[in-house]
Automatic annotation (TrEMBL):
Name recorded for this polypeptide: Tetratricopeptide repeat-containing protein
Cited Pfam families: TPR_1
PROSITE patterns registered for this protein in UniProt: TPR
Keywords linked to the UniProt accession: Repeat, TPR repeat
TPR repeats: 311-344
Matching SUPFAM superfamilies: TPR-like (SSF48452)
Taxonomic superkingdom: Bacteria
SMART domains in alphabetical order: TPR (SM00028)
Source organism: Hyphomicrobium facile
Length: 404
């Protein structure tokens, strides 16, 4: 292994080129935070300052934490380093397995190890023409379009209605206040164009539930009431739609009708066992009831079925870990969800609570400040299980969040 003082100018250029290849790979393109972390530590190594890499400086320079940050209290840098280490390993076990420059992050510190292989590895003849190595499961596409429309006696939805639905999906997945209302407009247009479009009713209900959970609804309109109407309408129009059943279950869970929520979520999974959102909503309903083990089994299945999990999936995964009292794993899941989409506030909210439960009060209050800046009157109770809700309440108190 070459040492920094042995690097020639051409070596340094090659290392920068290797860094660019890693950062542009599928393992890093979804996480800007992970990209910044790797670029920072490699840059410091190239500048001869690798031995100065500490959790405190990384927190300030990479994660934009305040000067009051305490790495002994807030484990964010340590956890991010673990994920960075795993992603580097995944990269070099797949598309980077024949690269002549290897970047690693050894355990126990933040100084990268950079190896320049002067003799390239022998590449199997049959693989020399390969230009891409995919680790994404071919079983499912990122968007399962089979769950946005179903066969009907009067034919499929019109192209215009389907286009409106897809535009709504694109907006909804940004998870901001503006995008939520924009999505509702598109879903409503799809329904106007085709009143029997079950998927449009289901997605409108899902957007309305999110509006309710975020406290964005106006005082004279009940978003949850409208969500219940549209989710029921979706099931009435297409009782064989797993999406319609799953969203009905999600709506009922927010009305605190836990038994019927479980029934609807289980029906969604029985209609299509390989529907990832069905497993997701069943996991959430089970976690809310305190059945952490069954919740985790379904959530693990959902993660396997969905090759590109969204921030919402990591939120659900974190809640399953929370229900099992696996707080460190819950924190990791919420942080990963935040990496994918920082705008999805429920991950920040539940992360603050979990920090609070774990006794990390400083980190809890830092995260709660992010929540309250966007969600000032938040006080949501997710768990139907009294013991879990009591634990969650302790976390809210320690984080400085309002407790209902």
């Amino acid at each position: 292994m070459t040492k920094p003082m042995d690097w020639s100018e051409s070596d340094r250029k090659a290392i920068v080129g290797q860094l660019d290849r890693i950062l542009s790979s599928e393992f890093f393109k979804q996480s800007e935070r992970r990209r910044r972390f790797l670029a920072y530590i490699v840059g410091e190594a190239l500048a001869g300052r690798a031995e100065r890499l500490k959790g405190y400086t990384i927190a300030l320079d990479v994660f934009d934490r305040p000067a009051s940050f305490d790495p002994l209290v807030n484990p964010i840098v340590r956890m991010e380093a673990g994920r960075l280490r795993d992603k580097l390993r995944d990269y070099y076990q797949s598309i980077g397995r024949f690269d002549t420059i290897v970047v690693e992050l050894p355990r126990g510190g933040y100084e990268p190890r950079i190896e320049i292989r002067r003799e390239p590895l022998n590449r199997p003849e049959r693989e020399r023409s390969d230009t891409h190595f995919s680790t994404v499961s071919p079983r499912l596409k990122e968007l399962n379009l089979s769950n946005t429309s179903h066969k009907r006696p009067d034919g499929p939805p019109s192209p215009e209605a389907r286009d409106a639905l897809l535009r709504g999906l694109s907006a909804f997945w940004r998870y901001t206040r503006q995008s939520c209302f924009e999505a509702q407009e598109h879903f409503s247009r799809a329904i106007t164009l085709d009143k029997k479009y079950a998927a449009a009713h289901a997605w409108l209900a899902r957007a309305l539930v999110f509006e309710h959970s975020m406290g964005w609804e106006s005082s004279h309109v009940s978003a949850l009431g409208l969500a219940y109407e549209h989710s029921n309408r979706a099931v009435t129009l297409d009782g064989q739609s797993p999406m319609a059943q799953a969203v009905l279950g999600w709506t009922l869970l927010h009305t605190k009708d836990g038994v019927d929520a479980l029934t609807a979520a289980r029906r969604a999974c029985s209609l299509e066992p390989n529907f990832p959102d069905g497993r997701l909503f069943l996991a959430l309903a089970l976690a809310a009831h305190g059945d952490g083990e069954a919740a985790m089994r379904n959530m693990e299945t959902a993660m396997l079925l969905q090759p590109h999990p969204s921030s919402f999936y990591y939120y659900a995964l974190g809640l399953c870990h929370f229900a099992l009292a696996e707080y460190e794993s819950a924190i990791e899941a919420f942080l990963q969800g935040i990496e994918i989409n920082p705008s999805f506030m429920p991950n920040h909210y539940t992360l603050a609570i979990t920090y609070g439960v774990s006794g990390l009060s400083t980190a809890a209050r830092e995260e709660a400040a992010i929540v309250k800046a966007d969600w000032p009157n938040v006080s949501k109770n997710f768990f139907l299980s009294e013991p879990l809700e009591s634990i969650s309440g302790t976390g809210k108190k320690n984080a400085g969040l309002i407790v209902a």
